[in-house]
Amino acid sequence: MGLNLTDRGKAGTQRHVLTDRDGIPLAALLSGANRHDSVLFEDLIDAVPPIKRPSGQRRRRPDKLHADKGYDFRRCREALCRRHVAARIARRGVDSGERLGRHRSSALSRGSGAPVG
Q: 117 in a domain, yes or no?
């Protein structure tokens, strides 16, 4: 077996991937295994290439973004607000992880969103 990458201070890498509602990657970044997911949140959103729209106009970012509790920080919500992206982030200590998966799959089937993974 390899190293346990969940131990702090250990060597390794972590992949941060932003996908569309169908699971197709829109942006990806690598970081050290001991960095928190929310640290690269803004860089990951800025790495999304322009999205083609039927009207011919290009939108730089998705309309809304679904994320888990690891991104429930004021700086993450403010970053989305500055970019005019609706935040759908599970609240720490409020939403259960079981409900998030159910909500995410039903919400993504109705609208255009990009879950962060």
A: no
